[in-house]
Write a structure and sequence with these properties.
Blueprint lengths: L13 E3 L10 H8 L5 H9 L16 H24 L10 H17 L5 E9 L1 H7 L14 E8 L6 E9 L8 H24 L3 H4 L5 E7 L2 E11 L2 E11 L6 H32 L3 H9 L31 H9 L7 H11 L2 H7 L5 H8 L6 H16 L12
Parallel strand pairs: 1-7, 4-5
Antiparallel strand pairs: 2-3, 3-4, 5-6, 6-7
């Protein structure tokens, strides 16, 4: 059982991996990196010679010379930019800066080392929306709903040579290093885990045999806080469970000295290993996704179904949510009579009016019938002529009404 203090937000989901994927650099690359493990003064003299050192050892004949020259030039450019960065800040990096300062001045150097001159990888910097997350959110969308954007990240690593936007990594950057239990780190960790899950599902959906490829696939992430970076990877466990692994945590030194140069070389080595792992995963996904002659033969023979996407199922369109409701028209006697006259039989007008009025509700007549005063209504409803007694009664009522009023029509006050 775990204690309450040890139960974090990602306990059981994010853990340390004791044995991450074995990926090491070749011997000649390790020898070239170790050449820069010097003091700042000697490193300054070494930089003046350029990337093509006069005392370089011969590389094995099986390695392409152009590949060696590109690696040496890329490594020399990385160490030169770090040296200039420390020199402009009095050999010590500031701790409290904006997030954009760390992204441009510090981490952009390592991001270029990660994807520069890579045949498979590309880096999209800035606050950019993930296409894999957008596809997941808009699944089942129709014309009545607005298109939703995907989750945004501070950088996304995509793969080249694909017909669709194939994302394999995500980057989140924070300006303050509050440790592994900081609020910003925990929020970014949850955010990047969801992004990697969407990327993983999108790649598997494009593969020919996703059940087999799911156990081999890995997607990667970088969780950056100030000068500290955490390397993440996501893999599939079983069923609907995934494992987000915190592989390693490294920190860029704040001072430019011999110990700081060694720390930077360790960071460079880890970035190069991370690059090799992502490139190998991109090549593996390309083999699983690309169409080959076997697919063509299967389509020509009619085995395994069509290679075209399935047609959308037909469905009845419903009224939009914001559409105005239909208003019921008021039925009048004239409209009812017009409907009755269009029938085959031609009854008398009195019968038509009775038939039309029988179809109308009672409330319709109450709304149409004009209101009449009580005295007038009595005169209208009475069919016999008035008698002398009724006339005298009406005259007495009128005299009482006139006697209770003044000349200007106001009621008199009682004494």
């Amino acid at each position: 059982m775990l204690k309450n203090d040890d139960q974090g937000l990602f306990q059981g989901v994010i853990s340390r991996d004791a044995s991450p994927e074995a990926a090491v650099l070749t011997e000649w690359k390790r020898r070239e990196i170790k050449r820069y493990s010097l003091s700042p003064e000697k490193l300054r003299d070494l930089r003046r010679c350029g990337w093509n050192f006069p005392d370089q050892q011969d590389i094995h004949s099986s390695v392409d010379e152009s590949e060696v020259d590109e690696f040496r030039e890329r490594l020399h450019d990385t160490m030169s930019r770090f040296s200039s960065l420390y020199r402009h800040n009095n050999n010590k990096l500031p701790e409290c800066r904006q997030e954009s300062w760390f992204a441009i001045k510090v981490w952009d150097i390592l991001m270029e080392l990660l994807v520069t001159e890579s045949e498979w990888l590309d880096h999209k910097p800035g606050e950019i929306s993930s296409s894999a997350s957008s596809l997941r959110r808009n699944k089942g969308r129709d014309l009545e709903t607005r298109r939703a954007l995907g989750r945004k990240a501070d950088g996304i690593i995509t793969c080249k040579n694909f017909d669709f936007d194939f994302e394999i990594g995500a980057i989140e950057i924070g300006r303050i290093d509050d440790g592994p239990t900081g609020t910003k780190v925990l929020k970014d960790g949850r955010k990047i885990s969801k992004l990697l899950k969407d990327m993983f599902d999108l790649i598997c959906s494009k593969c020919k045999s996703p059940s087999i490829f799911r156990s081999e696939l890995r997607v990667y992430g970088l969780l950056i806080s100030g000068l500290r970076v955490e390397f993440l990877s996501l893999r599939h466990l079983e069923g609907r469970y995934y494992h987000l692994v915190r592989e390693d945590t490294l920190t860029i030194p704040s001072s430019w000295n011999e110990s700081g140069i060694c720390s930077i070389l360790i960071m460079v080595t880890k970035m190069l290993v991370f690059r090799d792992r992502m490139e190998s995963m991109a090549r593996l996904a390309n083999n699983r996704i690309s169409t080959d002659e076997e697919d063509l033969d299967r389509a020509l023979s009619g085995v395994g179904g069509s290679v075209l996407p399935p047609l959308a199922q037909s469905s009845t369109l419903s009224a939009p949510k914001n559409a105005p409701k239909r208003r019921r028209k008021k039925i009048t006697v004239v409209a009812a009579m017009a409907n009755s006259t269009s029938s085959k039989s031609t009854p008398n007008p009195s019968e038509e009016l009775c038939a039309a009025s029988a179809q109308l509700p009672k409330t319709t007549f109450c709304q149409i019938k004009p209101a009449t005063p009580p005295s007038t209504q009595q005169n209208v409803e009475s069919t016999t002529p008035p008698t002398k007694e009724s006339l005298k009664k009406l005259q007495s009522q009128e005299s009482q009404y006139s006697s209770s009023r003044c000349d200007d029509g106001r009621r008199r006050r009682r004494p």
